[in-house]
Specification:
Elements (H helix, E strand, L loop, with lengths): L9 E2 L1 H8 L3 H9 L6 E2 L5 E4 L2 H13 L4 H9 L9 H33 L34
Antiparallel strand pairs: 1-3, 2-3
């Protein structure tokens, strides 16, 4: 991993990508979504402050656990003076996200537990299909695996 000398206070997008492990396109995307910011040089090149490394790490860690970008942006916007997140910030925000993650884990466990029943059926109108058709709601109207409304003539 390339080291950046301490006297360099701003990073090019390539340096930020190399240090953060994020692709240049991801950094451009993060910037477009308001997660990070840069200044432009006279030659219109992006320059990021060194603390952007921590913001990128924060974004990537939150994404890895499934937090939506809009939620991450809201969390970063709550920080005073748009400063870099600290360990205490991460602890506070991750605690707030815990209930959402617990619910997602419950949903994934439910999907895993019922996946075997669903794979072999080929028909979403079965009464036992608790994933796509709980309580056989679609079976009353039609049979087959189509859940799209029928076209009317």
């Amino acid at each position: 991993m390339p080291q950046i000398p301490e006297e360099i206070h701003e990073l090019s997008v390539g340096q930020l990508a190399a240090r953060s492990g994020a692709a240049v396109s991801a950094l451009h995307f993060y910037e477009a979504k308001g997660l990070i910011s840069s200044r432009r040089t006279a030659g219109n090149q992006r320059r990021y402050t060194r603390d952007t490394l921590r913001r990128v790490a924060f974004v990537r860690a939150a994404q890895r656990v499934g937090i939506p970008l809009a939620t991450i942006r809201e969390a970063l916007a709550e920080l005073p003076e748009e400063r870099t997140p600290t360990r205490a910030d991460w602890a506070r925000l991750s605690q707030a996200w815990r209930a959402e993650l617990d619910e997602r884990i419950r949903q994934l466990n439910r999907l895993r537990d019922h996946l075997t029943d669903c794979i072999g059926c080929g028909c979403l109108s079965l009464a036992t299909c608790v994933l796509s058709n709980p309580h056989d709601a679609f079976g009353a109207g039609r049979a087959g695996s189509r859940l799209l409304p029928e076209e009317r003539a």
